[in-house]
TrEMBL record:
InterPro entries: DGQHR-contain_dom, DNA_S_mod_DndB. Pfam families: DndB (PF14072). Coiled coil: none annotated. This is DNA sulfur modification protein DndB.
Amino acid sequence: MCPLRLIPRIFLFDDDELAPEVRAQRVLNKGRVPALTRYILDNPDDYVFSALTASVDGVMKFVGFSDEGPGMRVGQLHIPMASRFLINDGQHRRAAIEAALRENPSLGDETIAVVFFYDAGLERSQQMFADLNRHAVRPARSIGVLYDHRDEISQLTRLLALKSPIFKDSVEMERSTLSAKSRKLFTLSALYSATTALLQDLKLDNAETARTISEAFWLAVDELIPDWQEVRSRQLQATEVRKQYLHTHGIALHALGLVGNTLLRDSLDPEDWKPRLAPLGQVDWSRSNPDWEGRAIIGGRVSKNHQNVVLTVNYLRQQLGLKLSAEEQQAEDAYKRGDR
């Protein structure tokens, strides 16, 4: 266990300017550091980090608390401060710890676990990095939303998925993709992205208000997409709806959330925004609709990169008579020119 105040002082990471073949780790992605830093500062009593892994170019000596029995495996590790410490895994955590300490020096007495290896040279350090990351698998985004109890939008999304009459029993809670035979219509991660888009920059009083507005909006959308209702009443199968229509896919939910956000910014009163949403009922969501090609569908496959989301939003805005932003108009002009 190493005090956080020592982490920035003794642990080094490779110079970003070195060529990859003479480094022992990836280049530090500075864009990741602020979020990690904010996570530490916002949760000083219960943040969780996995152990750092480091190589030590120096003489290490372990002194157990006893010469025999279980105590011989517990003790102190003595390392000369003149030694060179190189992080093999955890350079972003190290950078975040350094940044957090600048804002809150009292965190310096906290500790983090470190696994130490003798430094056996560059080749061994590179192999350690490869081995440590060889089988690393990022968890599906849906299960991340399901288990995140800090993020208010995650909490709201779970409530919608579990309690809302629209989404109850229709949301895949763990995986971020649906298998061909799945009986679900949506993924939790798609609903999270859509609800985040719906509520962004709205000045809401509290979480209950956010829930009320979200439920009202998705209920209004549900009334305009009869296929969702027919799946719930078992008149249609979810597999067939997903195969034939676009409105259950993540790109469509995200686009609906963004369009809804525009309406809600003008007024939170359903009496104002619901009539403006009504033309949504005339949208042809079938994947065979040629209007979707190049917008939400590329070569017969649904695509959800940023440009496709913008073009899908544009289409819905046009159906609802809403004005395009400058960025959206630029993307629309490029689409019409065939620059896609």
